[in-house]
Amino acid sequence: MQTASVTYQRQKKHFLMVVKRKADSLDMSLKSSNSNQEKFEQIYQPLQREHQRHQEPAHQSRKNLSEMHDEDPGKDKTSQNCVERDLEHAARSLGTAREEICRLAAQEPQGQGEEQRKLDSAFEKSQLEVEKLKELLKELKENGSADLQKAKEHNRRLDEEILALRNRVRSLDSEKKVLGEEVERLRGEICDSPERKHLGNHSPGKTYRPSGDRTKSQPQEELQQLRQDLHRLQVLCSSAEKELRYERGKNLDLKQHNSLLQGESLKIKTELKQAQQKLLDSAKMCSSLTAEWKHCQQKIKELELEVLTQAQSGKSLSSLEEALAREKSNVAAAEEKISDLQQKLEHAHKVCLAETCILGKKQLEERIKEAMENEAKIKQNYQEEQQKRKLLHQNMNELQNQVKTLQDKERQLKMTNVQQQLRIQQQEAQLKELKNERRLCDEHLKSNQELSEKLSGLQQEKEALGRECGRLLKQLDVHVRNYNEKHQHHKAKLRRVRDHLGHEVEQRDERIRQLESDVRALKRQAEKEKEFQKQVIAQNDTLSLEKRKLREQLVRQEGIIDKNRWMLSSVQKRVLFLDQENKHFLENNLQLSQQIDLLERVVRSILIRRGEVRVSVSSPSILRTLLRPARGLLADWKPQLVTSLNLKH
User: What are the UniProt keywords, alphabetically (predicted)?
Assistant: First the structure.
């Protein structure tokens, strides 16, 4: 955008310099044209009326500009004032140029020819500059439409992310409700735990007090830990609620901001509809180019498949080189055709110059009038397009600022989402720990109840055991006697077992020796396998180096193919551009031939009205003198066309 504005300013300065030069040259001619004031007054009155008619739309456009300034007083006042001053200066200079052209119409044909050449050349230069300015405005509109499409896509992404954030907030609310229910359930269980303790204290196991005291102290400590965890959970839940409120406020702000952006986008859409209608023709051309591009892509894909299938063999390289050589030859042939077309165009241009030498004076005057009318229309269109471009610049700047703010808000929301996810994960881990601790408490309570029941059973068993002790003492004597007899028998068995163990130990030592020999053999085999692995690794390294070299060759070939594609596309674009220029030249030739006929008729009618006697004798010389400016005009026009073609290519 900055480069476009710089080029626009340069072209505007050049246009003003040309207009000033015209004014200076016309001032010099005014000094020599004081003798023909009566004829000038007769011709000046209708021209002045036409000039006033052309100036009316310029005044209307200035009024519109002033209204736009009143609506937006704080936006770009300095730039618009400068543009208005330049336009006023240009209008004044063009008015003086028109007056001087009318004065020169009454002068002698010899002095008038040179001045008309200068004026016509300057006028055509100004027309070319106006066309260039139109092209710049079209490019600026296209850039603005592309930027607006990017902004729309960015807004869509923001809407999707806002919906995801809303879903996330809903899930957080549901998780919060679940956490609240679990906290209430834990509180109820904690209230039930002291009642269970009270019941455990009134159990019949009073004889074993020290063990009961220990079991009581453990659940009390666990209850304290549970209370601390509950307090932490409450703090975390309160912080989560605050964060959720903060995020909801942010979401509301984002909704309001998005509504404003949507309103602005609707305004921009209405402004862009007109530009889209102008771009339909370019879209048709693009469709034809895309069809050709797809055809080229199909050919390129076929070539790529051939490269992939034949990459392993060396024959593929030779075939690709031959294909590239053919493409280069085709490109050279296309360049030769382009050079032939350029020569034909030069020949046609020379023919047009020869034909335009038959033009007359009055045809040039009518052409100047038409050019003046076209210039007024061009000024109106230029002012309207300039206003639209300024509005687009303002909208683009506002959209860029809004996009930056939205990006900052997106980053903040992402950071808050990450923090919330971390906090939720921490809360889930703490909930799991609390659940585990609760399970442990339940298990301890159950174990306490079971122990109390066991104590009552053990007391009853103690009384039964006291009774049985008497019987057992009597039976001990009998068992001791039997034990002594069995002990002696057992010693004899031990001796036998020792002898058997000594024999088995000798067999084990022999097996250990055999296993050691087997281990040595396995170590040797392992060393051999390691050496084999080293050899395989070395071969793999060599193969990988070869693979890299082949990949580099493939990359080079692909680069060559891409260059050929680019050359083909550039040649196609040049051919299309030359066809368009040929059509434009033919249309200009037809218009010039029609204008030549009209000028000849007008010259003859004027000569008849003046009543000159030497019409038949001096008409060829008059026509030659009148057609000299046309020759100069076409001679000046040719290098400008060549330079414009070179710049576009």
Answer: Coiled coil
Distance between CA atoms of residues 90 and 379, nearest Å:
10
Query: How far is CA 419 from its chain centroid?
Result: 29
Calculate Rg over the CA atoms of the chain: 51
76: alpha, beta or left? (left if phi > 0; alpha if psi -120 to 50): left
DSSP labels for 171-203?
A: HHHHHHHHHHHHHHHHHHHHHHHHHHHHHHHTS
- C-alpha to C-alpha distance for 448 and 561, rounded to whole angstroms: 85
Query: Is the per-residue pLDDT at 207 higher than 50?
Result: no
DSSP result, 583-642? HHHHHHHHHHHHHHHHHHHHHHHHHHHHT-S-HHHHHHHHHHHHHHHHHHHHHHHHHHHH
Q: How confident is the model at residue 33 (pLDDT cuts 50, 70, 90)?
A: very low
Distance of CA 589 to the CA centre of its chain: 46
- Give yes or no for a contact between 134 and 382, defined as CB atoms under 8 angstroms apart: yes
Q: Which of 340, 334, 302 is nearest to 570 (CA)?
A: 334
Reported as a single tens digit per residue, the pLDDT across 85-98 is 655 655 565 566 55
As given in the structure block, the two tokens for residue 54 are: 């052309």
Calculate the CA 211 to chain-centre distance.
75
d(CA 588, CA 590): 5
pLDDT at 308: 72
3-class state of residue 108 by DSSP: coil
Q: How would you write 206-217 as a 3-class SS string?
A: CCCHHHHHHHHH
Separation of alpha carbons 59 and 52, rounded Å? 10
401-411 confidence digits (pLDDT tens): 766 777 777 67
Q: Answer whether residue 579 shows pLDDT above 80.
A: yes
DSSP letters, 518-579, are: HHHHHHHHHHHHHHHHHHHHHHHHHHHHHHHHHHHHHHHHHHHHHHHHHHHHHHHHHHHHHH
CB 455 within 8 A of CB 205: yes
> How far is residue 575 from each of residues 185, 335, 341, 536, 578, measured CA to CA in Å?
82, 10, 9, 58, 5
Encoded tokens for 277 = 């209608």
Burial level of 123, CB count in 10 A (0-12/13-18/19+)? buried
d(C-alpha 411, C-alpha 546), whole Å:
47
Phi, psi of 388 (to 5 degrees): -60, -40
Instruction: Give the number of C-alpha atoms closer than 13 A to the C-alpha of residue 32, restricted to the C-beta side.
Output: 11
Residue 379's CB is within 10 A of a number of other CB atoms, namely 20
3-state secondary structure 156-172: HHHHHHHHHHHHHHHHH
Is 313's pLDDT higher than 60? no
3-state secondary structure at position 107? coil
Mention every residue, 6+ apart, whose C-beta is less than 8 A from residue 1: 140, 143, 393
